[in-house]
Write a structure and sequence with these properties.
The protein is mostly helical. It is built from four helices and no strands. Helix 2 runs parallel beside helix 4. The termini are far apart.
C-alpha cells in the first residue's frame, strides 16, 4: 500500500472517530437540544457528496471515511429530528 493511501486512511480514522463520542452521547441521553439541525443536515449532505465523489474516483480512504461518517452523522441527525 502506498504511503499516501496510508496517510489518507490515518486521516480518515481520526476524523471519522471524532463522531463516535457525540453519537454515543446522543443515543444514550437522547438530548439534542444543543445540536444544530441545520448544521447536521448540511454536513450530512456534504458527506454524502464526498462519498459519491470517492466512489467515482475509486479512492478507498475517501470512500471509507465518508461512508462511516455519514452513518454517524445520520444517526445524530435522526435523533435531532426525532427528539426535538
Amino acid at each position: 500500500m502506498e504511503t499516501i493511501t496510508l496517510l489518507g486512511l490515518l486521516a480518515a480514522v481520526f476524523t471519522t472517530s471524532s463522531f463516535i463520542p457525540q453519537a454515543i452521547k446522543t443515543i444514550q441521553t437522547k438530548n439534542t437540544k444543543d445540536l444544530s439541525l441545520a448544521m447536521y443536515a448540511v454536513f450530512s449532505t456534504g458527506v454524502l457528496l464526498w462519498l459519491i465523489y470517492g466512489l467515482f474516483i475509486k479512492d478507498v480512504p475517501v470512500i471509507i471515511a465518508n461512508a462511516i461518517t455519514l452513518v454517524f452523522a445520520l444517526i445524530i441527525l435522526s435523533y435531532k429530528i426525532r427528539y426535538k
